[in-house]
Amino acid sequence: MEPTTFVLFGATGDLAKRKIYPALYNLFIRGKLPAAFSVIGLGRREWSDDTLRANVEQSLRQFSRNKPEDAATLGRFLEAFRYCMLDIGREADYLRLLDLVKAREEELGIPENRLFYLSVGPEFFGTIADNIRLSGLGSGRGWKRLVIEKPFGHDLRSARELNRKLSESFAEDEIYRIDHYLGKPIVQRLETLQQENPVIQALWTNRYIANVQITANETVGVEERAGYYDRAGALRDMFQNHLLQLLMMAAIHLPHDSSSETVRFKKKRVMESLELLQKEDVGIHVVRGQYAAGSIGGKPVVGYTSEPGIAPDSRTETFIAARLHIDNNNWRGVPFYIRTGKRLKEKSTRIVVEFKEPVKHPRSPNGAEPNLLVIEIGPKESITLQLNTKESGLDGSFKPIHIDLHAVGENSPEAYENLIGDALAGDPTFFAHWDEVELSWQWVQPILDAFGEDLVPLHSYEAGGYGPAESDALLARDGFHWWFDDKSDLKSNTNEGERYVCQTNH
Ligand SMILES: NC(=O)C1=CN([C@@H]2O[C@H](COP(=O)(O)OP(=O)(O)OC[C@H]3O[C@@H](n4cnc5c(N)ncnc54)[C@H](OP(=O)(O)O)[C@@H]3O)[C@@H](O)[C@H]2O)C=CC1
Ligand SMILES: O=C1O[C@H](COP(=O)(O)O)[C@@H](O)[C@H](O)[C@H]1O
């Protein structure tokens, strides 16, 4: 990996502490950081190099999956860190930063390869990009990369404006837009699961698939982010980015040796084929909800509008479910159902592919269930194929068997580790390209408009359940139901039914 200077805006903030330092440390101990590497942390706080290092060490002790046990290893890691006080709006501070970056590059004898990681609010992205250009930080003799966090815009118009602004200072292939769902290990394996397994590839069409369900349920509420969340809601916070990315990853068909360009091209094609909704029709395809008081894991929780910092008359959605159609030869006629919400019964992020039943209706009396491919993305990771077999005995009924297609890795890397490693290596495959982001906002915009004009009812749902009943009705109208919402469906997640572990390519 090429020698790099990692310039971290927001080094004193929460994301750096919880995700970025642990990711860098885990890359370091796995030997996945460049041999010559330095981190320049930035913030307004009056920290010294030692204060930064002490904070990094503290963050590793609290948040890293590998705790720093060996003092010498930790010392070598921390030695790479320098701190520079910088106010984002003050141009002179960038010149001081440039001096420090150059001094470090000379000290280490490394080329001017600079990765700028913006772990700060999106309102600062444009100013930082401008100042990187104006100060000369962005015109070194090596490469430059810009890593940015969501939210990428608040709607289609603001996303386009932000992109225009960034593109004055960085080319598209220099911009790495983090969507941490793309860094999750199982999501990264989806492409190979399909590519390396012709059986799955052959089944990946509307000929065999009845519907696809993408769920991201959370038990947490708005937490300490009332100010941000009440302006965003579930549609902007989860749906426009993470869930549409999962949809793209699930729906693409990839040739055997796909490059990152192929992956991005195919994802773009999926988004281009998504049927756009008219604002007036949003209520037919989209359900929105807001949590009321209830209980989670036996503990009472307040409703959304009683959360600290949320206005009592807020109409922000904390739940959304939608039915989408991809109008192309592979997926025409296959509904994709997507839902996400806060204060639901359990934390689970999964994709369920329900296969068509040639003969029997789902839940037919003899016990046969539709074949399912269940991709558990978190908090547990698994890929399971549910098939039917005949019960030995007299009644001849069927029972489901489950074939595990994914060996769960011990201590597998976290999303940020994968993504920061990829950004350092210059691999853009698992970052969101502007085309995808723009098409996602384009798809979401009529829904934002319909919500804004109150054309869609806001259903209240009790905390601790599975969201409003209208979300079930959305699927019931098509003759389907959400899988795994009640205990009887949880067979594939428990020991009920026989399980087989398979060797697969992925
Ligand atoms: N925290 C999380 O889990 C997640 C965060 N994000 C995104 O990451 C970004 C950072 O979030 P988070 O770390 O939580 O935010 P914090 O509020 O914890 O940190 C903000 C950081 O920005 C710095 N900062 C703010 N204003 C200035 C300024 N004028 N000049 C220089 N530095 C400034 C602060 O430094 P100082 O106070 O020293 O000036 C601080 O380091 C946001 O865009 C957020 O949406 C995305 C996903 C998850
Ligand atoms: O980006 C976000 O994601 C989290 C959920 O992430 P996960 O990895 O725990 O599934 C969500 O809680 C948060 O609101 C959102 O901003």
Automatic annotation (TrEMBL):
For this UniProt record, the keywords arranged alphabetically read as follows: Carbohydrate metabolism, Glucose metabolism, NADP, Oxidoreductase
> Has UniProt tagged this entry with the keyword Oxidoreductase?
yes
- Give the enzyme class: oxidoreductase
Which residues constitute the catalytic centre? H242 (proton acceptor)
InterPro entries the UniProt entry points to? G6P_DH, G6P_DH_C, G6P_DH_NAD-bd, NAD(P)-bd_dom_sf
Alphabetically, the GO molecular function entries are: glucose-6-phosphate dehydrogenase activity; NADP binding
The biological pathway it contributes to is: Carbohydrate degradation; pentose phosphate pathway; D-ribulose 5-phosphate from D-glucose 6-phosphate (oxidative stage): step 1/3
Do the record's keywords include NADP?
Answer: yes
Annotated Pfam families: G6PD_C (PF02781), G6PD_N (PF00479)
Q: Where is the Glucose-6-phosphate dehydrogenase NAD-binding domain?
A: 7-188
Which E.C. number(s) belong to this protein?
1.1.1.49
Annotated substrate binding lies at: H180, K184, E218, D237, K342, K347
Which GO terms of the cellular component aspect does the record hold?
cytosol
Q: Which residues bind NADP(+)?
A: G10, A11, T12, G13, D14, L15, A16, K17, R44, D87, I88, K150
* Catalysed reaction, written as an equation: D-glucose 6-phosphate + NADP(+) = 6-phospho-D-glucono-1,5-lactone + NADPH + H(+)
Please report the stretch or stretches of sequence annotated as the Glucose-6-phosphate dehydrogenase C-terminal domain: 193-483
Any GO BP: pentose-phosphate shunt, oxidative branch
Function field? Catalyzes the oxidation of glucose 6-phosphate to 6-phosphogluconolactone.
Question: Which protein family is it in?
Answer: Belongs to the glucose-6-phosphate dehydrogenase family.
| Protein name as catalogued | Glucose-6-phosphate 1-dehydrogenase
Species of origin reads Thermobacillus composti (strain DSM 18247 / JCM 13945 / KWC4)
Write the gene name: zwf
